[in-house]
Amino acid sequence: MEDKVVSPEKVEEAKLKARYPHLGSKPGGSDLLRKRLQKGQKYFDSGDYNMAKAKMKNKQLPTATTEKAEVTGDHIPTPQDLPQRKPSLVASKLAG
Amino acid sequence: LSTADIISTVEFNYSGDLLATGDKGGRVVIFQREQESKNRPHSRGEYNVYSTFQSHEPEFDYLKSLEIEEKINKIRWLPQQNAAHSLLSTNDKTIKLWKISERDKKAEGYNLKEEDGRLRDPFRITSLRVPVLQPMDLMVEASPRRIFANAHTYHINSISVNSDHETYLSADDLRINLWHLEITDRSFNIVDIKPANMEELTEVITAAECHPNQCNVFVYSSSKGTIRLCDMRAAALCDRHTKFFEEPEDPSSRSFFSEIISSISDVKFSHSGRYMMTRDYLSVKVWDLNMESRPVETYQVHEYLRSKLCSLYENDCIFDKFECCWNGTDSAIMTGSYNNFFRMFDRNTRRDITLEASRESSKPRGILKPRKVCTGGKRKKDEISVDSLDFNKKILHTAWHPKENVIAVAATNNLYIFQDKMN
């Protein structure tokens, strides 16, 4: 007799595979874990930096920066982009 | 909503009189319980702000191009040895020992300086006086006494004070170190699961804790849903466990999500030391340390989410790390969920309750109303359907007073303290 009951998890898995057909079959494997280990990595590439600086002479670069985006390519990284934020002087709202 | 205000850890001290919170902005706020007195009979042991200080600052490791968040991952109190209180607070890379002391007297009448600090001209001093201690308004000062740095390549997820009150452990994704509280330039590596080839990495350490009364025993949990108990007397490097706890899985029910939702986000010993509790994405399990083959109790936190795993994977919620805690007598356990809901389970009666920590549902001195999630079919009045749950309102951190039925629940940037009456 055919078992027609499919677990909710398997239904969800089918949904996910339908949306992302290139998803690997080893979800908990090294890719996911290595992404976790690399949290916080922000790269500075001097080659990109110099090329972008050369391009800047030709066009105006947007001044708005995205904080968490990888700082490479057209965007010239500046010390402000690196998260050397000022220490928090605002008191925690819990203490208010 | 300022993200710096998001509470990232909550912890009562050993007596329960102090409650510490850490936030994403690297600050620590300590609350103190008011002593009940005749003057204020209605205060009923309220918690008020006692001290607040900046524990960690954001840093950038230029050598590794690594941004180091100032977010406080964990706070653990040290047992009180004198009038001052001490705690350990950690971010991803550095652990700090803070001493919090009170000052209610100051010396006045110095000979060589004025009250405002200006130096007195020595030639003008014609008489000698003895400084006296005068009462002053209570000042609570926090000072960093030890900085335990540069011992973790990966991100610290746990710290735990040993029952010997001399050492503590710190765990990151791949390694666990043992420190002496007095020594900051050295630590012993006691667990190292880093593979020689990082391509072969299959699991990481997710939490670790020292046994509450056996100072040679500790446990650590993994992203694969296993717990290893180690005995430090067995070897200097505890890569080989003494006990290995894993619940057998039915291979036919395995799915893409199985390993992810089995990842243990928190492990806590019972106060008795006989049991330990683990939290994975959908459930809380209680293990008897004498039985490695399976947990003795399993509690479903929000089983209705099993049919939402696809969207929870897409919005990353499936990786949320919920904590769990025991009450003082180990008869009840508590953990958080979404929509500002938190769950409590009574181990003896097997009753469970869902409560909400939000402004709308909590009035000062009001009684919390139990909440219920409707999983299908007709939704009753007062029930909330799974699709209406707010997954941005996560309760990841909760704490239970070590002796009384007082609980602290962190709902994003708000802290709720409930004095709960359990029958």
UniProtKB/TrEMBL annotation, chain A:
Residues 57-96 are annotated as: Disordered. The keyword Transport does not apply. InterPro entries: Endosulphine. Keywords: Cell cycle, Cell division, Cytoplasm, Mitosis, Phosphoprotein, Protein phosphatase inhibitor. Pfam families: Endosulfine. Its main location: cytoplasm. The keyword Membrane does not apply. It comes from the Eukaryota. Transmembrane segments: none annotated. It is found in: Cytoplasm. Protein phosphatase inhibitor that specifically inhibits protein phosphatase 2A (PP2A) during mitosis. Belongs to the endosulfine family. This is ARP19 protein. It comes from Polyodon spathula.
UniProtKB/TrEMBL annotation, chain B:
Coiled coil: none annotated. It comes from Polyodon spathula. The lineage of its organism: Eukaryota, Metazoa, Chordata, Craniata, Vertebrata. Gene3D superfamilies: YVTN repeat-like/Quinoprotein amine dehydrogenase (2.130.10.10). This is Serine/threonine-protein phosphatase 2A 55 kDa regulatory subunit B. The gene is Ppp2r2d_1. Belongs to the phosphatase 2A regulatory subunit B family. PANTHER family: PROTEIN PHOSPHATASE PP2A REGULATORY SUBUNIT B. Keywords: Repeat, WD repeat.
